[in-house]
Amino acid sequence: MPVVIEIKEGEPEECGRACVCRVPKSLCSAKPEAFTPQFVGLGPYHSFDDKLTMTLELKLAAAKRVFKHAFEIPISKSIYEHLYHADAFQKPESSYALAQDGLFLLALLHWSADAEPQQHYSFLTGRQGLPLVNSFGLELTIDAVISDVYMLENQIPTPVLHQVNQASFCKGKSESDEIQPQEDLGAKMQSLCEKHCPLVHLQQLSKKPQEYDHLLDLMYHFIVPDEKPKIDSGNSQLTISQSNQDSVLIYHLLALISPLFESNPQSSTDEEVVNNSRR
Q1: Could you give the CA distance from residue 144 to residue 52 in angstroms, rounded to a whole number?
Q2: What's this model's pTM, rounded to 2 decimal places?
Q3: What are the residue ranges in the chain where pLDDT is below 50?
Q4: Are 214 and 156 in contact (CB under 8 A)?
Q5: Do the beta carbons of residue 167 and residue 71 sit within 8 Å?
Q6: For residues 53 and 180, what is the distance between their CA atoms, to the nearest angstrom?
Q7: With CB atoms counted within 10 Å of each terminal CB, which end of the chain scores lower, N or C?
Q8: What's the pLDDT tens digit per position in 106-148?
Q9: CA 178 to chain centre
Q10: C-alpha neighbours within 13 Å on the C-beta side of residue 1
Q11: How far apart are CA 50 and CA 221, in angstroms?
């Protein structure tokens, strides 16, 4: 299955904000492996880490096991560059890697919805009975991949998934299909989050699943109730900015879900997390 990736130039969105941020060193220094992918890197921060088991070639091969048809992925820089730190795309090949990583994540969303547990290894490696291990001797499993997928620095912005999904959807579905690509993507994002959410009773979403920034953002809103920032009636000023509030909550979420994936970062106090988010 040939996959052609076309990177298009474009004016960046003026109102965009970074939603895939690096975890502050002060937060992850105690146990960096709890916040750093161990098997698969997604996006410009970790995609080129040669210590990770799932290389770009292995990720693309896994995607081809799900999407059997050939298609072209046109992706515009204007939809994603502003969503990362300014130095994220210094390497010319970073944009192509992001598109390939988006394809791998989309394949994982499709695969996880229907696959039996014993089939996961076939998706990841194409083989049965031949395990892959990382530099620490830990075996590659679907649970380890899911752990990496939910790390903050490993997030693929939803607009990127939209464009990749649109390309694959148009070639893989017939015109008679009633479901829309956006709805199909949102349903699969929600399914994966519900399957791996640490809580039984999930929060009600205030918008469609495909309208959140990325998978971790969707998981965060399943766990944390939507609350408006408090307003000081004396001076009508927000007591905490929305961006700081989001940072505090998402770091709390990281600390909450990481033990489920066999990572146990030392917990920070509320005061430490707030201070980190304001830096």
Answers
A1: 12
A2: 0.77
A3: 174-176, 229, 231-245, 248, 261-279
A4: yes
A5: yes
A6: 34
A7: C
A8: 999 988 766 676 678 788 888 766 678 887 788 888 889 999 9
A9: 27
A10: 19
A11: 33
